[in-house]
Amino acid sequence: MRNLFQKKDVAQLLAQYQKRKHNPSMGAFDLTLMGIGAVIGTGVMVLTGITAAQDAGPAVIFSFILAAVACSLAALCYAEISSALPVYGSAYIYSYTTMGEIVGHLMGWTLLSVYMVTSSAVASGWSSYFNNLLEGFGLSIPKQLLTTPEHGGIMNLPAIMITFVITWILSQGTKESKKFNNAMVIVKILIVALFIIAGSFYVKPENWQPFMPFGAEGVITGAAAVFFAYLGFDAISASAEDVKNPQRNLPIGIIGSLVICTMIYILVCLVMTGMVPYSQLNVPEAMSYVLQVVNQNAVAEIISVGAVIGLMAVIFANTFAATRISFAMSRDGLLPKVFSITGKKSGAPVWNTWITGMLTAFIAGFVDLKNLSDLANMGALLTFLMVSLSVIILRKTEKNLPRGFKVPFVPLLPILSIGFCLFLIANLPMKTWLYFSVWLLAGTAVYFSYSYKHSTLKQ
What is the CATH number of the domain that holds 323? Predict the structure, then answer.
């Protein structure tokens, strides 16, 4: 019986990278925008206000800084290992190389759940913003077409449609689709900048008093709540084979996007809590709400338009990452070959993109995501943990492997990252553990029924 923990050879992996059939087209700027696009979404629209009201008050800026420090530990690990192994697959390929095939397969399976569920959840949120925007023009979508069957509706039609639109854009190839994504992210940044500039004229310093109404405990509680607002920067590593000079550009994209997103969160929180008392911010659309309070309804409408455009970038980044994970798994024989067939003109995995898009659309349109949202959080935290562990192992097994970036103080910083991830995983609800266990069991069944027999390592 073949060893389930047989590892993928690093030299062969890098040789495979050199033989890739398409020309990379993404630079540091494109990667940074992809990271911002994946991170800045519902977090800045929703979590900023709710966390300020419920947990930290104006000191929510410290909550975001603490969460950023925790995320930066994982980001540093991503920066090192992605520059050393610049291939499709992200944590899947890192685990496969350092811990063996079955571990790598289950990590790839986990990543697929993270990216598809996240895309579905954001598509569902996009549907609400889109309907609100239509209502501003006196139009509306019937409730039955905005609601999943579990809640008495037929389907969430806008969520399905926007998923198919993004899927079609991705199927055109990386070079073409990145232009669209860059445009969406730039619009999103401009909208946030508009909020900061317009809102700053209405800031009243007295609204920042008391600055820390819930004490240090509230700041820490808030940090745990907003940690998930940073998830998404890891999608950058999944695009490695599409990147020009990955040893340089991948670390810049990963770390750069995290720094910029942290600055955006801090500025938005400062303006928001300065415009109205923090106790009034317990609303899902805090950015629009505070502008309406100061009678800037026109700017609030523009912010709503920006939310519709900006959330599309989040769907784009997560769907893109999912297709690259399944492509890598297919290329290694762990998923059917249809997932690694590329188009002659686009160079994109077209069949893969449409299969992933249809699955995501189905989840967004017909499944209630309330009980599944934490599944993505569990998967993301496990991914961060495994990437941090992979950095430690690879430092031991491949000491001379060229790295475009090195994590300082190894193994201390990766161990701190692992510890923080374990702490947050332990505090997730029991039902999340149940859903995740079921998903892993399904992945294990796929491995033994298909992947083990067709793995390229077996050949």
Answer: 1.20.1740.10
| Tokens describing residue 139 | 């139009």
What 3-state class would DSSP assign to 55? helix
CB-CB contact of 159 with 120 (8 Å): yes
**Residues 395 and 75: beta-carbon distance below 8 Å:** no
Residue 89 lies in a domain: yes
Region 401-420 average pLDDT: 93
Q: Quote the domain boundaries for residue 203.
A: 25-454
Q: State the Cα–Cα distance between residues 293 and 220, nearest whole angstrom.
A: 29
Q: How many domains does the chain have?
A: 1
- The residue written with tokens 């430092």 in the block is 395
Count of all residues that appear for the chain in the document: 459
How many CA atoms does the CB half-sphere of 370 hold within 13 Å? Answer: 5
pLDDT at 107 over 90: yes
Q: Full-prediction pTM beyond 0.70?
A: yes
Residue reference for tokens 């991170």: 39
DSSP structure class, residue 416: H
CA-based R_g, the chain, Å:
22
Taking each helix axis from N to C terminus, what angle separates 246-275 and 60-84, rounded to the nearest 10 degrees?
A: 170
The pLDDT tens digits for 49-80 are 767 777 888 888 998 898 888 889 999 999 99
Where do runs of H (alpha helix) occur along 100-243?
Answer: 101-136, 157-171, 174-200, 215-226
Residue 142 lies in a domain: yes
**Is residue 2 situated within a structural domain?**
no
Residue 12 domain flag: no
Cα dist. 58→138, 266, 270, 352, 420 in Å? 36, 10, 7, 45, 25
